Amino acid sequence: MSARPTSVRPVRALVAGVVVLLTSTLLAAPAGASDAAERRNTNPTGTRSGSLPNGAGNLKVRLAATADGRIRVGWDRSRAKQFKRYTVLVSPGRQMRTQVKAYRVSRKRSALVVDRAVGATPASGNYSFVKVYGVRRNGSKTASQTKWIQAPITSRCTAAARDQVTIGLFNVRTWAADRNLGPRRNWTHRGPNAIREILRSGAHAIAIQEASGSERLGFGKKPQKKWILDRLNATDPDKGARWVDALSDDAYRPPKGRVPGLVGTRVFYDASKYRKLDAGLARIVDPGFKKDSLIAWARLQSVRGDQAPFVLSSNHLRVGVVGSVKEWRIRARQTRKTIEVLGGLQRRFGGQVFLAGDLNSTNNTKPSNNVHQMLMRAGYYDAYATTRISGSKFPTTQDSKFPLYKTPLRRDYILSLGPVKGSCGYRNQIYRKPSRIASDHFMQVAQMPLA
């Protein structure tokens, strides 16, 4: 049985943020067979993603999925006489500062079944982060290391290889941000690396963000988007490759009274592999943001004609000040508009619609990862929700800092909307050396089923 909520109030002494406190009145779980099962279950989804193994660290916390999709949290109570009680915290983010649930537990207990973190649904690919505190009789505390476990995957990929498509996502970082950086960090160095990242991804349909650098900034006599396409065509090992932008510059011209907006939001594809059936640009006008977010989309189909067509959209939401509720609300309005636009495309064309973009919202975003949670409620499936995932130990962004920090944290997302649920594979395409830096984001690659 799981702990049941009996009261709700903040626990500021333990963790900052929104906390739901739940008091457990259940008896201690019996030792024996259940403990042995816990030791055998090493929480593979968590340990593959950087979590400590079961039984490691202070209080020797263990996590295991229950048959009904919740989490059994176990811990060492060999020092129980020192404690007044335990508190188990569960949050969508490792920093334990958003949508935290706190369960107060008797010192006689050594295990507790808890609900998954907010937003950790089977379609989300999200993790539940868990931490256990021991509260001593004198009021002091000791804490376990935070551990995590992924939501159970209930939609498996059953599509044949010919019914799958490789989707790429890459925020290349505008070279306008490089003006005050030296040649070892600016586009002179990053640009060739960015091309290598795209080519090694194996994707031929890619949602691009921030390819907005002007030719006036000293990195060549052409704008950044053209620089990228020309280099792809010049260096792709496939001599028949023909990389193009799905939309012309005319499509990005703003209406009267509006600035151009986030014009680096593009869909690039290899026209030797896909034919364009349709394309368009939607402009998200928000009263709180002068620069419009844009939704660039293209309906593509394999030139072989043996695959269902699909829609790929490139998306980039407002970034703003970290922790700003104003920016959080802007992104919520932009997400509602995105859901409206892409839902309309799915109803118009049928089949699968893929949303790929830098959504500037993570599970550490205060007060919540509202963007992702809204998309999940709208029926999207996250490509990260797969048993075939690599690079999950690391964030999708690294802020140009090395060595990489080990934790699953996403700002960049690939999601699908349509009759087929599931993901056939996901790769956070990391590198560990500063010499390979291509952007402050890693490229994301997903293998997705088609309708």
UniProtKB/TrEMBL annotation:
InterPro entries assigned: Endo/exonu/phosph_ase_sf
GO molecular function: endonuclease activity; exonuclease activity
Disordered: annotated segments: 32-57
Gene3D superfamilies membership: Endonuclease/exonuclease/phosphatase
Biased composition (Polar residues): 42-52
Signal peptide positions (record): 1-28
Keywords: Endonuclease, Exonuclease, Hydrolase, Nuclease, Signal
Top-level taxon in the UniProt lineage: Bacteria
Record-given protein name: Endonuclease/Exonuclease/phosphatase family protein
Organism: Nocardioides lianchengensis
